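Subject: Sanity check before I submit

Could someone independently write out the structure tokens for this chain? I want to compare against mine line by line before I put it in a report. The sequence has 299 residues.
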Amino acid sequence: MAAIEASDLAISYGDLRAVDGVSFEVAEGEFFGLLGPNGAGKTTTLEMIEGLRRPDSGSVRVLGEPVWPRNAALLPRIGVQLQASAFFERLTAREQLRTFASLYGVPATAADDWLERVGLVDKAGARVEDLSGGQAQRLSIACALVHDPELVFLDEPTAALDPQARRNLWDLLSGLTESGRTVVLTTHYMDEAEILCDRVAIIDRGRILQCDTPAALVRGLDAPARVTVGPGQLTLDEARAIEGVDNATESVDGTVLTTRTPAPLLGRLAAQDRLDGVRVQTGTLEDVFLDLTGREYRA
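---
Independent answer below. Compare away.
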């Protein structure tokens, strides 16, 4: 049984078609990413699947149950971390989490355990309004997970976190599916999606453009590799004369060689004793994302 079955979802706001025929499935135990530029329809799609917004057309089943009409039986089985967190006023972080836990009949000790898992033990007595943006984000994630849901929705969970906190949270998130839990993630960080997600769907202008594993999407792009040779080792003329080099440019890091045959090229550089400081960058999920959605600024 699929954890999520979305079929031909559509919704409009006036003349704007925010979601336009979105269909996909998420398997039980899968870590699934929904990626797209600002205004692509990611959050609206999630809200329809979560039962927070009724689609104009199409259907959704979550954990084998229809979402509409509003299905209260699903609420204890899902956890939702929204893009904009809403907390009870004037409660401390511990009180906040214990309150969420009590709504699901979860003991206070389990709530306190989640404070430790998201690194907020030292802020347990601080009021929510005194937490930093990143701390409030981590508390929001703990509130979504405190009742041990089968299916978790995370809407840009690391958006306000510093790099160290992001990496620490990745360790937590990567273990969520180990017990069979299903996770659906939206993020603007392509490295995050590439590391965490089993599959990703790229959405733009309300439509799914591609859906596959990150590795398969990168392979399908057939992007050239970029081999950077340290400064002073190669002139542009020497670089362009090497067999297998499609193009060569200068950068602050050295000479950048573009090639579709990186392995033979590295062999030739080794034969010329020019491997010191060499870096190889192949195609990434970010390259796929930009290729599909374009590079123009979005509001």
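---
OP: Matches mine. For the report I'm noting this point. The chain is about 30% helix and 25% strand.
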